[in-house]
Design a protein that fits this description.
The protein is of the alpha/beta class and 361 residues long. The chain contains 14 helices and 9 strands. It has 2 domains: 11-217, Alpha-Beta Complex (Spore Coat Polysaccharide Biosynthesis Protein SpsA, Chain A), CATH 3.90.550.10; 259-356, no CATH class. Strands 1, 2, 3, 4, 5, 6, 7, 8 and 9 form a 9-stranded mixed beta sheet that branches.
């Protein structure tokens, strides 16, 4: 007797769930609307105490595999359990509350087929908060070279937008590292870089939900600590014993957008960015257009740091304009004037608001 088995799908979608009954059905519906229909959905429920299991079980779709964990293990170990069950040649990440746009899988699979050296590709995403769709704060235009640079100073990808070649992901042991909770995605991107390139499709193909219950809001401190550990490892060869302090500085003021408290801290951030960028340029040797893009995005972040310091009073205009590292202005004529004009505009806005408050008292 011959038994026929179903062929492996193109994409395996991994969704760890915990008390997600209010939103998980909508997330799965966004998968059912995909133009590429050859996928499986592995939903691993981490001992939810609400109706999550019943909600998923009620969805009549043979592509959905519902697995119930025997004990609560947390999102990372739950995700790893789903990864171990995946049969597709590509792994699609997705959290229980985010929404895929219809072309997401088709566009990402096509990209990986056309770029065999790329191991992981994300997409641009918009943000849904309080019923309003907002644009992402991430870089609007990317290249693999820019993504590789931004990984040195921030997380340029939304996890739920990521698709990974399964054969590349199998070389990671474990898939996600639980000791780096809340920055396990950032860690994975760095660990997969030696295996293959990391890229992003700049079309918005995901809607990321931002809400008070989200882990990124509840666990900001733990996220910063884990991200600092990741970058300390990345920086070890260049900064030696100062790697952890440099990583903490970059995570706080570039990644987490914490205002610098004074000019000395601003100078330290600038010096670290210059050193990191010089090393990246020397090691990766990006072409002229990529070098311009890298410098432009670095300058945008520098201006943002300066504006935040001015708004909170940690910096004066002379501090923000006087500490201008060499990495600013290289490649784009007039960028220093642009940054300066934004800083001046920030100062004037702060002054107007202070004057208005004084007039009311």
């Amino acid at each position: 007797m011959t038994f026929l088995t179903a062929p492996d799908p193109v994409v395996s979608v991994i969704i760890p769930t915990y008390n997600g009954s209010a939103l998980v059905a909508e997330t799965i519906a966004s998968l059912q609307a995909q133009t590429l229909a050859d996928f499986e959905v592995i939903v691993i429920d981490d001992c939810s105490t609400d109706d999550t299991v019943a909600v998923v079980a009620a969805i009549d779709d043979p592509r959905i595999r519902l697995i119930r964990a025997e004990r609560n293990r947390g999102v990372v170990l739950t995700r790893n359990a789903g990864f171990a069950l995946a049969r597709g040649r590509c792994i699609a990440a997705l959290d229980q509350d985010d929404l895929c746009h219809p072309e997401r899988f088709a566009r990402q699979v096509a990209y990986l087929d056309m770029h065999p050296a790329v191991a992981l590709v994300g997409t641009a995403a918009n943000v849904l908060q309080d019923g309003v769709i907002m644009p992402s704060p991430l870089a609007p235009v990317s290249t693999p070279a820019l993504i590789a640079w931004l990984l040195q100073i921030e997380n340029p990808l939304v996890w739920s937008s990521v698709m990974i070649r399964t054969d590349a992901a199998r070389r990671l042991d474990p898939f996600n590292r639980p000791e780096l909770l809340y920055a396990e995605d950032f860690d994975l991107y760095h660990r997969i870089l030696p295996i293959g390139g990391v890229a992003r499709i700049d079309t918005e193909l995901l809607t990321y939900r931002r809400h008070a219950a989200g882990a990124s809001q509840r666990q900001a401190t733990a996220m910063r600590d884990s991200a600092t550990r990741v970058l300390a490892g990345v920086y070890a060869a260049r900064f030696g014993d100062a790697a952890a302090d440099t990583a903490a500085l970059i995570v706080a003021h570039v990644m987490a957008h914490q205002p610098v408290p004074d000019r000395a801290t601003l100078e330290r951030v600038g010096a670290a960015l210059v050193t990191l960028q010089e090393d990246f340029m020397a090691t990766h040797r990006p072409d002229r257009e990529n070098a311009k893009l890298i410098r432009w995005e670095t300058a945008r972040r520098w201006a943002r740091i300066g504006r935040a310091g001015l708004r909170t009073g940690g910096l004066r205009l002379g501090d923000a304009t006087g500490v201008r590292p060499d990495h600013l202005g290289l490649g784009y004529a007039g960028i220093e004037d642009l940054v300066l004009s934004r800083l001046v505009g920030t100062v004037r806005g702060v002054q107007r608001r202070r004057a208005a408050r004084a007039a009311k008292t």
